[in-house]
Known about the structure:
Layout: E1 5-14, H1 18-25, H2 31-34, E2 38-43, E3 48-53, E4 61-71, E5 76-83, E6 85-96, E7 99-110, H3 113-117, H4 119-147
Antiparallel strand pairs: 1-7, 2-3, 3-4, 4-5, 5-6, 6-7
Amino acid sequence: MDWCRYRFRCVWRLAATPDSVYAVLERAEDYPRWWPQVREVAPLDDTTGTARFRSLLPYDLVVTVRALRRDPAAGVLEIGLGGDLEGWARWTLTADGAGARALYEQEVEVRARLLRALAVPGRPVFRANHALMMRGGRRGLAALLGAV
């Protein structure tokens, strides 16, 4: 097992249409407004940018983000990640009754030196930290969609 590799899968059920959710998720530069753990997003051009996040742990992760797929008809947004995390992340949006089901999938390798050094003892903490970040994102997005 490579202790520095992670796979995450999370489902958010939201009281909004898939198109409405997609419209919010495709605007990554606005994430810090509704997702507390996303501290900063800085576009570099039309398809790349940088992002900085921090959840419960007092450590910022900084990544370069590159758009790989934007497919509103299929409800798919996919990005490539480099920097402190290397890999990809993808949102897939589908109808779920009167609302939307947002599936988040991510496969990454931790590249940050400190986190690699703490890979074995820190793994449960890193996974819990990610879960808290996702919970904060779901709450923020649900509140934003409810206010629109």
